[in-house]
């Protein structure tokens, strides 16, 4: 195993952060660090909002402990530990669900957070009656593709110009076991 699993709370955004607005601002901040501007869900200074068909799963460090350095509370490290570790957005359509975004903070990458978020998303899909979950991924995001494949997603095509002219996406699909 490459590292230690960070203590997580993976839950609907409404239950896991002090308020929905705080959670969405943290998500927007992580999105801006992770993805190019053309791929931002809430571009510019737009106030983030969710639609009724969207669900957000978040991973945050929930230890509630202070980090100490030389016997004193290290405020910067403690603040970092309480920040959003990662998030996943999933859109629920009548016949399927679609993962529309997954991001993990660089501090927490390689610790199983992305895998846990995807696992929780597929569980949510089946709980809500969707037997199929789909997503699109940039062919150059090798780590993301491997993560999805480890979680049972299989390639089922290419979407031309998905990310803009000349930037295709690989379409992946997960099917619930019957």
UniProtKB/TrEMBL annotation:
Keyword Transferase among record annotations: yes
PANTHER family on file: ACYL-COA N-ACYLTRANSFERASES (NAT) SUPERFAMILY PROTEIN
Domain N-acetyltransferase: from-to ranges: 11-178
Keywords: Acyltransferase, Transferase
Domain of life: Eukaryota
Organism field: Syncephalis pseudoplumigaleata
Protein name: Acyl-CoA N-acyltransferase
CDD domains: NAT_SF
Keyword Transferase tagged: yes
Record GO terms (molecular function): acyltransferase activity, transferring groups other than amino-acyl groups
